[in-house]
Design goal:
Elements: H1 2-9, H2 19-36, E1 43-47, H3 55-60, E2 64-68, H4 72-81, E3 88-91, H5 93-97, E4 104-110, H6 118-131, E5 132-143, H7 150-164, H8 167-177, H9 181-189, H10 196-205, E6 208-212, E7 224-230
Parallel strand pairs: 1-2, 1-4, 2-3, 4-5
Antiparallel strand pairs: 5-7, 6-7
């Protein structure tokens, strides 16, 4: 499952309907993550960050920022894009696993859990529990609840597009998605869904004291976010 999704993200795709969509998407995420950075000296990890076009906004709010993505082409693009920013370091997943215990103050896992099996997510949370320092925070966001429908995703995108001036492009993009590799992968594997109680239990089993956040990261407020602190 994860290998096929990584292969998808590792090549050109049309998830973002145009450059405007991609820009406002990543800017919103960066601004919302930056607002949650616990201190100007915090050591931050954005795991599964994607292209993270505006990660410099997060870097400006913290002491050091590690960007991790499983797709080699995405990492190469990140390294080139942020080569002049001394605060930003690009890591592969195996490099994250080799970081020392307590190396991070704030870990973000945004819009990744839905592409993982429950076993893979539990393993990743165990890694985060080892890496987060006492007093640190883990943010797990864009969690899809069991009652969620694809139509809710569509409506959230269209509202976002209308607000940011790419509605016509979004309508065309939705049509193209019907025939895309993303649609085929989603039909084959589905996306992982978790109820709030299930996510809280999973985080507790991983050694965290967790709570649901009042707001999700990104434009889709039908999805959920959770704060987890080591206990």
């Amino acid at each position: 499952m994860i290998a096929d999704w990584l292969a998808f993200w590792d090549k050109p795709h049309a998830i973002y309907v145009n450059a405007r969509h991609k820009d406002v998407h990543y800017r919103l995420i960066a601004e919302q993550i930056a607002a949650l950075v616990p201190s100007p000296r915090a050591r931050v990890l954005d795991y599964g960050c994607g292209e993270a076009l505006h990660a410099d906004i997060v870097a400006a709010a913290c002491g050091a920022l590690a960007l991790c993505d499983g797709a080699p082409s995405v990492r190469a693009g990140l390294a080139a894009h942020f080569s002049g920013n001394a605060k930003i370091n690009v890591l592969a997943p195996d490099e994250v696993e080799r970081l020392p215990q307590g190396a991070l103050d704030f870990i973000v896992l945004h819009s990744v859990a839905q592409y993982l099996s429950a076993e893979q997510l539990r393993a990743l949370l165990a890694t985060f529990r080892r890496l987060v320092a006492p007093g640190g925070v883990v943010l797990i966001s864009d969690i899809i609840p069991p009652e969620f429908s694809a139509a809710a995703d569509v409506m959230a995108l269209l509202r976002f597009a209308a607000a940011h001036g790419f509605l016509l492009a979004a309508l065309g993009g939705l049509f193209r998605t019907l025939f895309s590799d993303y649609r085929r992968l989603r039909a084959r594997y589905g996306l992982a869904h978790y109820g709030a109680a299930d996510m809280l239990q999973m985080l507790s089993a991983a050694g965290f004291a967790a709570e649901r956040a009042g707001k999700n990261i990104g434009h889709n407020q039908a999805r959920m976010a959770f704060f987890a602190r080591p206990q």
